[in-house]
Fold this protein.
Amino acid sequence: MGVSNKRQGETASVDAIVIGAGFSGLYMLYRLREAGLSTRVYETADGVGGVWYWNRYPGARCDSESICYNYTFSEELYNEWSWSSRYPEQPEILKYLNFVADKFDLRPDINFSTRVTSASYDEGSKRWLIQTDQGDQITAKYFITGVGCISTANVPNIKGLDNFDGDWYHTGHWPHEKVDFTGKRVGVIGTGSSGIQSIPVIAKEAKHLTVFQRTPQFSVPAKNYQYTQEFLQKSKENYHGMRHLMRNSVAGMAMYYGERSVLEDTPEERRKVLEAAWEKGGWAILFAYNDLLVNEEGNKLVAEFVRSKIREIVKDPETADKLVPDHYYGTKRAIIDTNYFETYNRENVRLVDVKKAPIEEITSKGIRTSEGEFELDAIVFATGFDGMTGSLFKIDIKGKNGVSLKEKWENGAKTKTYLGLTTAGFPNLFMLTGPESPSVLGNMPAAIEQHVEWVIDCINHLCQNEVEVFEAKPEAEEKWSQHCRDLADATLYTKTESWYTGANIEGKARGFQIYVGGYDGYRKICDEIASKGYEGFSLV
Ligand code: N01
């Protein structure tokens, strides 16, 4: 089947439609093409990159180590690309994804600056009809979403934003040109990963920075450094070992994963382990022990260690008190930083606790909390995303009998998937890194490669066996969703409010929609289901 080259406002028919040209969409396109299927990718942005196209805020950097934050499907690609430092900066990741798109000549099959508005399954023709904001109407046998887990920005509904005389930005929709804060009074709302990365950089440039913090967060030093040529050479020589570790580890990263309980060590041994992990930086503390996220007592000990470090770093005890978190370590997304807590020792930085004195209004001059008004020239919303379901619900996806995904999942209150990849009533729909898959609990490119490879093997199987309709069975998805909930409930994750649980979005139903059983365990389950002739699916 050939690809129609008509663009914008086209009416065409292809084998597969993919939404998104980030890590997921690009690799999916590569594999669909390789399998000989005609494919069209739709992307809202005018370039590739997905989240790395949009998140251009100061200090934006990934928290997976660079040598693992890439594709591993091609040894040639792995060898051709060299990262500059331990944690890749946003511009470098975007450059990498452009390099991939160029190397494999992916752009001709991507419609940029085009948003998919709806997708509906027609039971008669057994095809999906996709409509875009550019007037395209395309039908396809397979409909694949690569919309990302955290790509729908959350700008909280605070009274008065329209009245603000200054400029405002959301970290997830940062302008392409540099925003210059020199000489300005800046306010940052939010202290998650984006806030914690941008605050130290903005503080250095701005005349004054006020941080509006609702919940203090644990963060540990990233200890970033430049890679040497020798290190890069070695990691390339170890391509197969690296790939194996990424594909067969809990979090998709080639790193040390602790093998004993926090409680097995004496206090002295534990202190030594945690001090060493602190010095190593990055994820070392989170993975120093094997039960941090299930063992309440052990978690409290590690959390207390990190709290003591915050108190050591922050000179003003009152500010330190405000910065010390009281949830379980790692249950809100663990954060790694460069000079975050140190930033509060600067004269031009002030921390405001908006849990104690909530933001009441944005005025023409700045932000007014219950304790007073803070005059600002610019406001940065580092307020996160409507995670897991937000981007799927932005598209009107309708399955059999005209039932929408939003209706079926009761607006997220009852998300049900099979393997986080499919959902009953929506035949031939695949959701890359969808809710109830491991996705954000590890290194995304590793999760994405596993999903894309499972999907392409499945599609090849369907083609070879002349299967027209592939659909999760309701009982299989019921079991999977329950399994996901049971696993999550056995951890400390569900004991903390976070974007993982939907708590960051006003009015959003609470639920933990991520598979916590680890990348390695999940891969085995997916492979086993495929090897049993796609157990739990109906193939017609
Ligand atoms: O968003 P967040 P993020 N008034 O939701 C606060 C990935 N990521 O963009 O905790 C006042 O974590 C909110 O407060 P609270 C990573 O997976 C990765 O920072 O809800 N405050 C919180 O402090 C990450 O987890 C990287 O009480 C409000 C903050 O805003 C995910 O993206 C870099 C508020 C939001 O934190 C999201 O991170 C960046 C309100 N009305 C992002 N509403 C790396 O790879 C929200 N907040 C390093």
In short: The first strand starts at residue 11 and ends at 19. Residues 421 and 431 are 5 Å apart (CA to CA). The pocket of 3-acetylpyridine adenine dinucleotide is lined by residues 61-63, 150, 156, 171, 189-195, 197, 212, 214-215, 333, 354, 359, 382-385, 440, 499, 504 (CB under 6 Å). The chain is about 30% helix and 15% strand.
